[in-house]
Specification:
The complex is a heterodimer of chains A (342) and B (449).
Chain A lengths: L2 H35 L3 H33 L2 H9 L1 H25 L4 H18 L1 H5 L5 E4 L2 E4 L1 H5 L2 H28 L3 H32 L1 H9 L1 H19 L4 H23 L2 E3 L3 E2 L7 H30 L2 H4 L8
Antiparallel strand pairs in A: 1-2, 3-4
Helix pairs in contact in A: 1-2, 1-5, 1-8, 1-12, 1-13, 2-13, 4-5, 5-8, 8-9, 8-12, 9-10, 9-11, 10-12, 11-12
Chain B lengths: L2 H43 L2 H35 L1 H10 L1 H22 L8 H30 L5 E3 L2 E3 L3 H5 L4 H29 L5 H35 L1 H8 L5 E2 L3 E3 L2 E3 L2 E3 L2 E3 L2 H7 L5 E2 L15 H28 L7 H27 L4 E3 L3 E2 H4 L6 H29 L2 H13 L5
Antiparallel strand pairs in B: 1-2, 3-8, 4-7, 5-6, 9-10
Helix pairs in contact in B: 1-2, 1-5, 1-7, 1-12, 1-14, 2-3, 2-14, 4-5, 5-7, 7-8, 7-12, 8-9, 8-11, 11-12
Chain lengths: 342, 449
């Protein structure tokens, strides 16, 4: 295994973790807003806040980790993506900033319960994945063009591309689906039958759209990037496993059985699909300009980063375990029996 | 739009983001230590007031952390968006501390979440105190690592540039540039000092507003003592920083001091305005610059005339330098007077005008933080990487920076107002008198403690 592969795998893993934890976060905001809209807010708000409050900051770090890591391991990406992404990334940053600080203001500070804010918060949770997902479309090539030796983003090509819009739709449906399955499990653990019921319904509603758009994108790649498409076909069996895991999740939720296992299967489904997609993208970071080989950092830095990464994980994993034990798997906390908030 | 223009616009946006972020970042680094000390004092003295102090600070702290986190994310990404050429190079040479900073941040985020949601969960308050150590350590460590990146920009090393190619890269050497010791120490001590004075301001303000509760007096005395200790440390480290500049970045020191001719027995210029090469209305202290630079009155200090004109930083950084130093000196002096007066029970500290001076300490310290950062950043112009890459060569070629400036200005405005409104509402609705009364009632209501 070469250093390049290790580097890109590490980053892909962290991007995956961000996708899962951020989906739960973004989706929770949306469901909270939707339940306020339908006058069911009292059912969900407590469950959602109890989960999000101690972990929302950690969610944010996964994102920072990914973009700092990619500059570290693949400095050339700063040149191509940095130059072209100014507008979309700035918009995502502003949404992220408003969302993050609003959450803290409302939860720890002023107890803002105004409906308008709740709707905006929910909406921003859907706009965020939509504003981040064009990057995936851009990496397929055809949207970043060169003006002499300076790259620029062809907005017209991007905004008229069915591929880009399919990825946007996928990101939104996936966010809602992942979040709903997780919250079903969490609400069930809290012994909150009403919230479980509601979230279970949402999970079933969003399962279909999520899988349909995901499949659709594979076929759209056939026209957009045939090279990538053929490599995806080589990996058909991994996508098949992913689909079976999807069936498993939906079955368990339908039968109201073992929500914990259902969530694990869901993570497995996205993990396999995400990695198969990543592997089939190999060796390109930005088709056709950047491969992971010609953009890789020097060997000394790569080794230093990997050492730092291993040391960092040594610190991180026990801490994350402690966090989960205290808040995710602690019965009294989950059930809201005692409020230990500062 | 021309290349120069995007460089200027990128500088404006970066300045705006960083200037906003460092207010929150400074508090983010310093306040966990203050909370830690308050809780420790509370446990040691068995005084509930200090524990409550820690708890109330922690509540307000979350709000500032939240804004610090989101603006920190913004500057992290903006570095690549606005300075892609620099980040490409930085990725090759200085990625290690950037990467480590994220781990420190991770560590802090995890334990802050745990700390905030485990009040009263442990029988033993000391266990809860332990959770705060990783928070304070993580906050301090992330400031250390990010300052290392900034130090590298001031004194790049750990690589060779051969025909435009980077060779012989040593990540550790790049991380430990000569600017690191003074910069890191200065950043830390000023963060602790500023946080102490900001918290002192709050306590003083409550007393000015008429609260007579002993809780505020305890808070004020403790934070002023801490402020005094850290302002002395800051002054000492500031002196080392001057000596560092004389050795490694003489053009920055010379521009700060309007020192044109290379000469020995150099004078130090305080305040004044510049007319050609002659400062007017300035206070001149003979030999002081030589002492600041090398510790001996006779030492020779390099002047600005030794440098090519297009490599000299703007001369107005003198005002920033003066602002930073004067505020630092004033706060050290003022906190010393306060602590002595409190110890000797002089009636002066109960005077209203003196209270107001105390209230001013926190905002003044924040102004000094801004002035100091502007001084150090503008002082290395025109370089983004001193001696290697000019700022104009590093900027993005994207034409939409002006629009982004407007958007982010709006964002920071909203966040700034939001912080003030939320924090003041939070404390006004739940003053300490009310919270103490509630706790007493809870204790009587059958709570075993």
């Amino acid at each position: 295994m070469t250093l390049e592969i290790i580097g890109v795998s590490v980053l892909w893993l962290f991007l995956f973790l961000y996708v899962i934890v951020a989906s739960i976060d973004f989706g929770a905001g949306f469901f909270n807003a939707y339940s306020a809209f339908t006058d069911k807010q009292h059912i969900l708000t407590n469950i959602i806040q109890r989960y999000l409050s101690p972990v929302w900051e950690v969610t944010n770090v996964f994102f920072v980790f990914f973009f700092v890591g990619i500059i570290g391991f693949f400095p050339q990406t700063a040149f191509y993506y940095g130059t072209t992404l100014l507008v979309p990334a700035s918009l995502a940053l502003i949404l992220l900033a408003i969302r993050g600080s609003y959450y803290a203001f409302a939860t720890y500070g002023a107890k803002i319960n105004h409906r308008g804010y709740i709707y905006m918060y929910g909406l921003s949770g859907l706009l965020l994945p939509a504003s981040l997902s064009p990057v995936l479309a851009m990496s397929e090539g055809g949207f970043i063009k060169m003006n002499g030796d300076q790259p620029y983003l062809d907005y017209w090509a991007l905004f008229t591309s069915p591929l880009m819009w399919s990825i946007v739709v996928l990101s939104i449906t996936a966010v809602l689906y992942i979040s709903a399955v997780f919250l079903t499990w969490y609400a069930n653990k809290a012994g909150d039958a009403k919230a479980t019921d509601l979230m279970r319904k949402y999970a079933l509603v969003w399962a279909g759209p999520a899988i349909v758009t995901a499949t659709g994108i594979i076929f759209e790649l056939r026209g957009h990037n045939p090279e990538h498409y053929s490599r995806i076909l080589d990996l058909w069996w991994v996508f098949a496993i992913s689909f079976l895991l999807f069936i498993g999740t939906v079955y368990l939720i339908w039968k109201k059985k073992n929500y914990g296992l259902a969530f694990i299967l869901l993570v497995g489904q996205f993990f396999t699909a995400f990695f198969a997609y990543g592997v089939s993208h190999y060796p390109y970071l930005l088709y056709p300009y950047l491969t992971i080989y010609d953009s890789f950092t020097n060997e000394a830095m790569a080794i230093a980063l990997i050492v730092a990464f291993i040391a960092g994980l040594g610190l991180l994993l026990p801490s994350l375990y402690l966090l989960f034990r205290l808040f995710l798997f602690d019965k009294d906390y989950v059930k809201g029996k005692s409020d230990y908030h500062a | 739009m021309g290349f120069e223009d995007t460089a200027l616009l990128s500088r404006i946006l970066t300045t705006m983001t960083l200037s906003f972020h460092i207010l929150y970042a400074t508090i983010g680094v310093g306040v966990p230590l203050m909370i830690l000390i308050a809780q420790w004092v509370g446990i040691k003295k068995k005084d509930d007031h200090y524990i409550l102090l820690a708890r109330r600070w922690a509540r307000g702290f979350v709000i500032t952390v939240a804004v610090g986190v989101v603006t920190g994310t913004a500057i992290g990404l903006q570095l690549s968006l606005l300075w892609p050429n620099f980040m490409q190079m930085a990725g090759n040479v200085i990625a290690l501390p950037l990467f480590m900073e994220v781990f420190a941040f991770f560590f802090e985020a995890i334990f802050l979440g745990i700390y905030l949601y485990t009040w009263d969960r442990f029988e033993d308050q000391r266990k809860h105190l332990l959770l705060l150590i990783p928070v304070a350590l993580g906050a301090a460590a992330s400031s250390v690592f990010i300052t290392m990146v900034n130090s590298f920009m001031n004194a790049p090393q750990g690589f060779d540039l051969v025909n435009g190619e980077l060779v012989n890269i040593s990540p550790l050497l790049a991380m430990l540039s000569p600017a690191v010791p003074t910069k890191v120490a200065h950043v830390m001590s000023t963060a602790f000092m500023t946080s102490a004075f900001v918290l002192a301001s709050i306590a003083a303000l409550r007393i000015v507003q008429g609260s007579t509760h002993v809780y505020h007096k305890k808070a004020l005395l403790m934070t002023m003592k801490l402020g005094f200790v850290f302002s002395i440390a800051t002054a000492l480290i500031g002196d080392f920083s001057g000596k560092y500049l004389a050795e490694y970045q003489p053009e920055k020191l010379a521009a700060a001091e309007w020192h044109f001719e290379t000469e020995d027995e150099a004078r130090l210029i305080l305040f004044g305005v510049l007319d050609g090469q002659e400062p007017k209305y300035a206070i001149e202290i003979p030999y002081a610059l030589s002492i600041l630079a090398y510790g001996v009155p006779s030492a020779e200090v390099t002047g600005l005339n030794e440098f090519p004109e297009d490599e000299i930083p703007p001369l107005w950084i003198h005002y920033l330098f003066d602002t930073m130093v004067s505020i630092g000196m004033w706060l050290a002096f003022f906190s010393f007077v306060y602590v002595v007066a409190a110890w000797r029970k002089w009636p002066i500290i109960t005077k209203k005008w003196f209270r107001w001076l105390t209230v001013a300490a926190g905002p003044l310290a924040l102004i000094a933080i801004e002035a100091g950062w502007w001084f150090t950043e503008v002082g290395r112009q025109p370089w983004i990487l001193r001696g290697y890459m000019k700022t104009s060569e590093a900027a993005t070629t994207s034409g939409q920076v002006d629009l982004m400036i407007i958007l982010f200005a709006g964002l920071y405005f909203i966040l700034g107002i939001g912080t003030i409104v939320v924090l003041s509402r939070m404390y006004k609705r739940n003053p300490v008198e009310k919270e103490l009364a509630q706790r007493q009632k809870a204790d009587k209501g059958g709570d075993p403690e």
